[in-house]
Specification:
- By secondary structure, this protein is of the alpha+beta class.
- It contains 13 helices and 12 strands.
- The strands form 3 sheets. It has a 5-stranded antiparallel sheet with strand order 4-5-8-6-7. Strands 9-10-11-12 form a 4-stranded antiparallel sheet, with helices on both faces. The protein has a 3-stranded parallel sheet with strand order 1-3-2, covered by helices on one side.
- A hairpin with a 2-residue loop joins strand 10 and strand 11.
- The longest helix has 18 residues.
């Protein structure tokens, strides 16, 4: 591992000032992804600015019924928070599906959003990779790509975003609040991550030195239920082949509100807007859910070995929506 300097600021203002003052700086939160990448030689910061101990570790209600989640809140604490479990159940499910208890105890809300892809070519510095070394190519397109993208990819990159939490946040229309030496701004979480295009090395819309300070969840629509479900290669903790986060409200046998997001399919959590348009006001039922999912997935461009993801995503979405409409989550128990 390359030697690095270490800074521990006491406030968000001190953190962004330290970033501006040091060339080659990078923020360190839980370190569950960044430290691994440093060990592999993929990440080589000159300075680590430790933001994990900033006083941004609370979950608070906001006027109107939403929730404000500090960037330093640990994943285990967020998953267990009573307001999350009762009002944003899919988020709790996503966090619990994402990693072991030890990792959840270390990982933070902000760090989870900033995870980098687990594409094997990105993680192997002996291989070319446009995301790690722009202009060297994307060997995954013709190589090992079973786990990689079928939506929104480009000739330059077919990597997928690994976060479970971010998929649930996308379905809940979360907002990411940012702080820098230039002031504060906010972004919808659905616009926070980028598709690869011709700049796959850029994962997010963050500006240089910006620090995530919090994530805000709006109130859940009255009567809405939510669930998160993840298909993976093994029952123990593994990254999603496909995941689905859904929020659904039904009234008089028709869909009053629907939000749907996929994980494991693209370079960012994929908000299924076409599917939501098909669901709005439609009668509840398997055929409605099937047509909605197919309307979204018609845009998929699978590679040689990952076409199975399209069918898996369709079936997973139909099942999750069906269970929510019936008033059960993915374990068959009454959902929150």
């Amino acid at each position: 591992m390359k030697p690095f300097a270490y800074v521990r600021p006491g406030t968000a203002a001190e953190a962004v000032a330290a970033f501006a003052a040091h060339t080659g700086a990078q923020y360190l939160a839980g370190g569950t992804n960044l430290v691994d990448l440093m060990k592999l030689g993929v990440a080589t910061p000159d300075v680590l600015i430790d933001v994990s101990r900033l006083p941004l570790d609370t979950v608070e209600g906001v006027p109107g019924g939403g929730l404000l989640i500090g960037t330093a809140v640990r994943n285990s604490d967020l998953a267990a928070h009573p307001a999350v479990r009762t009002r944003y159940f899919a988020l709790s499910q996503a966090l619990l599906a994402g990693a072991s208890g030890q990792l959840r105890n270390a990982a933070t809300t902000g760090g989870n959003l900033l995870q980098r892809t687990r594409c094997p070519y990105f993680q192997d510095i002996s291989k070319p990779c446009n995301k790690r070394a722009p202009g060297t190519g994307c060997p995954a397109r013709e190589g090992v790509h079973r786990d990689l993208a079928v939506l929104g990819h480009s000739e330059h990159c077919v990597a997928t975003h690994p976060s479970d939490m971010a998929v649930a946040l996308a379905a809940f229309d979360a907002t990411v609040h940012l702080h820098s030496t230039d002031g504060d701004r906010s972004l919808p979480v659905t616009e926070f991550h980028r598709l690869p295009g011709d700049r796959p090395q850029v994962d997010t819309e963050l500006r240089a030195g910006e620090l995530i300070t919090s994530v805000e969840l709006p109130p859940v629509p009255p009567g809405a239920r939510s669930a998160y479900r993840k298909a993976r290669d093994r029952a123990s903790y593994a990254f999603a082949l496909v995941s689905v986060a859904a929020v659904l409200a039904v009234e008089d046998g028709r869909v009053r509100h629907a939000a749907l997001a996929f994980g494991g399919l693209a370079h960012r959590p994929w908000r299924a807007r076409r599917a939501e348009e098909r669901l709005a006001g439609a009668p509840v039922g398997r055929e409605t859910f099937l047509r909605a999912a197919e309307a979204e997935l018609v845009a998929a461009r699978p590679l040689r070995d990952n076409a199975y993801k399209v069918r898996l995503a369709r079936n997973l979405a139909v099942d999750v929506l069906g269970r929510l409409a019936a008033g059960t989550d993915d374990t068959g128990e009454p959902s929150s």
